[in-house]
Structures are given as structure tokens and as C-alpha cells.
Amino acid sequence: MHQIPELHTLRELRQSGHIHRTVKAEIRENLLARLRAGEPRFPGIVGFDATVLPHLERALLAGHDLVLLGERGQGKTRLIRTVTGLLDEWTPVVEGCEINDHPYAPACVRCRRLAESEGDDLPVAWKHRDERYGEKLATPDTSVGDLIGDVDPIKIAEGRTLGDPETVHYGLVPRSNRGVFSVNELPDLAERIQVSLLNVLEERDIQVRGYNLRLPLDILLIASANPEDYTNRGRIITPLKDRFGAEVRTHYPLDMAAELTLIKQEAALGWDGLGADLPEHLVEVIARFTRLVRESTAVDARSGVSARFAIAAAETAAASAVRRAALTGEERAVTRVCDLPGVVHTLRGKVEFEVSEEGRETEVLAHLLRRAVAETYRNTLGGLDLAPLLARFDEGVQVESGELVAAGELLRRIGPVNGLSKIMSQLGLGDGDESPGHAAAALEFALEGLYLMRRLSKDDVDGAAVYRT
After folding, report:
1. If you placed Cys at 377, which of 80, 422, 425, 449 could pair as Cys (CB 3.0 to 4.6 Å)?
2. Which domain holds residue 71?
3. Residues 266 and 215 grouped into a single domain
4. What pLDDT sits at residue 211?
């Protein structure tokens, strides 16, 4: 529970020594305090430390409204939402105010009238920083009324005159007054609607339908957009673009470490998520697979390959292990290589291919997945002596595996293998928490790697894989 300050009137607020600061001043001072203390500024944001965040911090310190520009799935919305963490934990507002007026400077007609009648007894309420965030996904049907406000017919029906400023129903922007407001996918907003934001960004006020009403707003406006060469549905009009103080480019994770961290942080994995273990080497396969898809010439580079692709791949593979455990009675669901091919069919629709690749989408993704497995095998087991495992096949053994073959059954079919503990240790599975599922995951990965290195053969029959010499 958050501890709400015990100050309930304007008099008590003044006696406490409270200082009124603008939203941008709050963010600037709190950001500087965290920078000096070496504390995290944007928790949960991965891979932007040396690239995006310095630009964002400079924009916030300068007091600029800004646009985050980047392809889909680069964490733009997540990043915007973390900015609210730089606000003061609690801020005072006039109790009952729709637009969060500060008790020291009431702006709306209702609060000014209340301040005159109540004086130092003006009632004060408190808002937590989590409540000081507003967001709108730009869609073609968004209206000026949605963003700025419109006449409230109910208040007119109650008998108020049409020119009364209190008949206005405020839109999302004024309701986010003294906070952070985000417009996602700004180019998708119709140009005539974008015009309504011009005053918000420059004059810092709003005007509603010709009312003699100008409300000064205290707000930080952050928009997100895809690059214009990809988003052909619309554009940011030049006067609006000029009013944003900064444009910050985002990107996909630049290295494997960031990709791995992102998958493990965001995917609903583990026993508190999908109820399955996803071994580290398979997380690496999925990360490499995602990077290969992004780099592929068969994929439309302008559309990008979202981070959600990797997250969904990890969750789909883990779900396959959960399904197997339910069908075969395994005590512990552990994801194996045989759970990866299903990812291709599930995620095919999340990638936009070049026109020339039409009809080959599944083939392209399956090929890139095999490459990812091979690269991970070389990185993890490439230097390990797997002769004892190969010796089992020299004896004429054939091993059938598949997504419905239980771990215990797979181990029985392979038989005893000298050096199994070394394989598991090399894959990070030998930490004392071993189970038949972990052993099967290690051995199946080794078999698939040996096949991709052309040291074993494999026949795919009705969804099952038969490994042989």
C-alpha cells in the first residue's frame, strides 16, 4: 500500500512547505537525483543503455516533448510508461477536479470558484504517479473530442446554458493535466486531428469548440511512430513535428546478451508462468532465430521483426512441453528441441515477407530455425567430445523422438551414455536440479546438433524424428 500524505486542505499544504513544480521540473529534478545516485532510471528497459537512453535523458532534462521513432516491437510504449516513474510519488490536486488542478494554481472554472469560496479550507486530494499517465492509440476514428473535449449534452440537459464553460466534457489530454500523455502511432492520426495538438505543444493550452475557454496545461507529451518509409497510412504534419523538441530513434537489441535478457524478462516462462522449464540453450536458439529472421533478405526489413516474435516463440515452445507432459504423464515439463518446429507455424503470420517469397514462408523460417540450432550447438557443445554418444549409433541403435515422446521413454531408447553429465553441465543443466526431462533435453539437443553437423542422419516421419547412423 502507498502511504498517502495526511494533508487535506490548502492551509495544511502551505504549512507543510510544499513547493509547486511543473511536471517537466519534477521529471528533471528526479532524473538528476537518480543520475547522481547511480540508480536505475528506466527499470525493465533492455539494450538501450548506451544508445537510446542518453538521448531520452537529454530530452527530458531539456524539458522537451518528444517522439520515439522506431519499428514495431522495439519497446517504445514500454519506455514511455517508465517515464512516469520519474514523477514525484504523490502530488496534491484540488479534490474532485477533472483536470488535476494544483491547489496553488487552480485553472478550471469550477476550481477557481471553489478556491474563492473556500479560501485556505480548499479541499486537497492526492494522486499517485501511476495515476498521472494518459495514453491514446491513434486510430482513424479518433476525434478532437476524444483528445481535447466537447460539449457534454447531459450537462446541457440539466439546464446549464450552452456557453457555460462547465458544460465542457474534457478529453484525454486535459484529463492528463499535470502528468504524462502518450499518443501511440501518431502518424495514424488524421491530419485535421493532429492540428488540435498544436496549441498543446506550443501555447500549452486547449480551446474547445469556440468556447471562451483557454486552459493552461502542465503536461509532458510523448508520441511514438514507425518510420515514415514504412508507415504509409499517414504522416506527422510538419507544424506538429516542428513543435516536438526531440526525436529519439529506438532499435532492436544490438547483441545476443540483450536479446537473451529480453526473452527471459518478458516471456511468461517457468513454473509461475506456463509451468515448464525452458533451458538456457533453447532460449539462445530462439534469440539466434529471431536475429536471423531480422537479417534475412526474404523478410521485409522495413516492417521489422518485433521483440514479441521472440517472446511468443519462447512461450509457444514451453507450451508444447506442457502439452506433452499432460498427454504422457511426465512429472516435470521441460522444453526440448522437438518443441521448436511448431513455433514456425504459429509465428508465420508475425513476419512480413518480400513479395518474391510468397508461398515459401514456412520453408524460409524452418531453414532459419535449423541455422539457429546449428549456431547454438557450435557455441555450446562444439568443442565437446561426443564420441560416447555416437558410439551408441555405431552399435546400430536408432532413436525416435518427437513432441509426444516422454523424456523417460527417450532416455530408454537412447540407453546409457557415458559423458552425459558433461553434456548437461556444458548446457547449464547440471546445477543439482536435474530431472529426466533435463537429461532428455540435453541429449536431444546433442542429437540434433550432430545431425546438423552431418555426423548423424535423421528421418522426419509423421512429426517424429528418427536419428540413425
Report:
1. 449
2. 10-249
3. no
4. 65
